[in-house]
Design a protein that fits this description.
Radius of gyration: 28 Å
Low-confidence stretches: 344-367, 537-546
Number of helices: 13
Strand order of the largest sheet: 8-9-10-13-12-11
Largest sheet: 6 strands, antiparallel, barrel
Helix content: 25-40%
Distance between the termini: 85 Å
Shape: elongated
Strand content: 15-25%
Structural class: alpha+beta
């Protein structure tokens, strides 16, 4: 089919089956570029594009779900899927641009000019969002194309004119400026550090909150704070702190002060029992998760750039990184985890495997931390491997690492163990973001949890607990006054309950901790503050005073 007859194109769109995603996407990916190569009259072209919009939104979302769960390597079989999705977004943006030019943008009715401008920006903005979704670096020229779309809307005087948009789930209308700001908000939200679910919410909420933001020219005589965000429409990037941007006629100042008030109001309504769905945030958002995510967006969206608490410094060297609870505990402690000696007759499966691997064990008092060669040999036998990552730069709070080829399957915000190039010990850390560069190299941001971790054994404590229940590994972190960080314990993800009491076996000591509040959460861990209750001698029964 040549897609030259507008009537046939509209009939084909009406016949598309929503469940046949691959065929629908193939036809749309053929039709939209074909209409660009040999366009019909502008009015007919626009009618086809508008009729295709809901089909394209559905097909593109389904295709993107094939690679959005994890960072997409450039050599993945789904890389072609990403390419085809991006190509269709770009073809839609060029199509609306063509209709505007063919119609004579200067003589268009204001409402039609505003619609074409909003649609063009919407689709140009979907391109960087798609790379965020795939956790891939944004190609050169992507931001420039988006900025050019916004400049064209400003030149026509239609940037702030709202037009109907059925695909905008919340407002059902949007201006070109709001479509532009929505993309900028997603870029501010640490998109490479978001899971598929959270990034979906961020994109939706960016549409919800974009009307409360403005892009302003810097007024004469006013000196905005350097930490405030600005945008250089002549540069190939998104918002940056104003302090790092050169003054120019293309400079805009981002004002999210109204949005800050909106976010505070939403968080207040959550405390009053109002549901996220009734506030336009979505029916799929649990209140707790919604509140945590929205709180993390409060500063970048509503205030200004936080700046770096600690400056980054260039560093050369290799860091060791390990994932998985047992492997992290092994490398932190320097030896396999064992049940406390008093419970030696109640060995877990892991304890039995350790016995089979290393032979008869001596008592804990005579089983000191192994030296480096012993650790590496034991790690190989147990499968507790480490990967080596190059350090790009570092600060007191973490590292930026890169690796090629990348082999570990990593998850956003999961717990990792890391040993810096010049370090003797493994530290606990959380993966704060992940991204593949265009050359196939994986980059990762690693946030270190303050304090030198110590492996302890934990299990539930209380009337309902089982005295014969095996202990699990956990990590104690001491207070770090210089960083204003108190003592904490890192537990498996689902262990935290307010005021829950756990039993801790720490060498010869036995004591109970009452969990108070969570400090940091990830998919496989929770870092919690605590209160110490009572200690026990090593020979005392669990639950009895010393």
């Amino acid at each position: 089919m040549g897609y030259h007859d507008p009537v046939e194109c509209l009939e084909l769109l009406n016949r598309l089956h929503p469940l046949n995603i691959d065929e629908t996407h193939r036809l749309l990916s053929e039709m939209v570029p074909a209409l660009l190569r040999k366009p019909p009259a502008p009015e007919q072209h626009l009618a086809i594009l508008e009729a295709a919009r809901p089909h394209i939104a559905l097909a593109q979302s389904a295709m993107a779900s094939r690679y959005a769960a994890h960072p997409l390597p450039p050599d993945s079989v789904e890389n072609e899927t990403l390419r085809s999705v991006v190509a269709l977004w770009q073809a839609m943006a060029r199509s609306y641009e063509h209709v505007a030019r063919a119609s004579g943008a200067e003589i268009l009715p204001a409402d039609q000019g505003a619609l074409l401008a909003q649609r063009r920006i919407h689709y140009a903005g979907m391109v960087p969002l798609e790379y965020f979704r795939a956790h891939r670096s944004i190609p050169r020229g992507t931001w420039t194309a988006l900025h050019d779309s916004f400049c064209a809307a400003e030149a026509l005087g239609v940037a702030t004119s709202r037009v109907p948009d059925a695909l905008n789930d919340i407002w059902k209308a949007q201006s070109a400026a709001e479509a532009f700001v929505a993309v900028l908000l997603v870029d501010l939200a640490n998109p490479y550090g978001r899971s598929e679910r959270d990034l979906g919410w961020v994109c939706r909420w960016a549409q919800r909150f974009a009307p409360y933001c403005e892009l302003l020219g810097a007024p004469d005589g006013e000196s905005p704070q350097p930490a405030a965000y600005g945008l250089d429409l002549g540069a190939d990037h998104g918002l940056r702190p104003l302090g790092v941007l050169r003054p120019s006629a293309a400079l805009r100042r981002f004002d999210g002060s109204k949005l800050a008030g909106q976010i505070k109001a939403v968080l207040k309504q959550f405390k009053q029992g109002v549901t996220p769905s009734s506030l336009g945030l979505g029916a799929d958002c649990p209140v707790d998760a919604c509140a945590r995510l929205l709180l993390s967006l409060y500063r970048p969206w509503g205030l200004a750039s936080a700046g770096r608490r600690f400056p980054r410094r260039g560093t050369q060297g290799r860091a060791e990184l390990t994932v998985g609870w047992p492997s992290i505990a092994f490398h932190v402690s320097g030896k396999p985890f064992e049940q406390p000696p008093i419970y030696a007759t109640q060995r877990s499966l892991r304890s039995d495997i350790s016995l089979l691997t290393f032979g008869e064990r001596v008592t804990r008092a005579h089983n000191p931390r192994w030296n480096e060669n012993e650790r590496l040999r034991a790690a190989t036998r147990l499968g507790f491997r480490c990967e080596h990552w190059q350090v790009a730069d570092h600060s007191v709070s973490g590292f930026r690492l890169y690796q090629d080829p990348h082999t570990h399957r990593l998850e956003h915000h999961q717990l990792v163990g890391i040993r810096p190039p010049d370090g003797e010990h493994f530290l606990l850390a959380q993966l704060s973001w992940l991204m593949y560069r265009a050359d196939g190299v994986m980059e990762a941001g690693v946030q270190v949890l303050s304090g030198l971790p110590r492996v302890v054994a934990v299990r539930p404590f209380g009337l309902s607990s089982n005295l014969h229940e095996a202990f699990l590994e956990a990590f104690l972190l001491p207070p770090t006054p210089a960083l204003k960080a108190g003592a904490s314990i890192v537990l498996p993800a689902k262990w935290f309950q307010p005021q829950r009491v756990i039993e801790v076996a720490d060498g010869a000591e036995r004591y109970q901790l009452r969990l108070t509040k969570p400090i940091l959460r990830g998919p496989d861990f929770v870092q919690v503050s605590y209160e110490t209750l009572e200690s026990q001698a090593s020979g005392a029964k669990p639950g009895t005073a010393r």
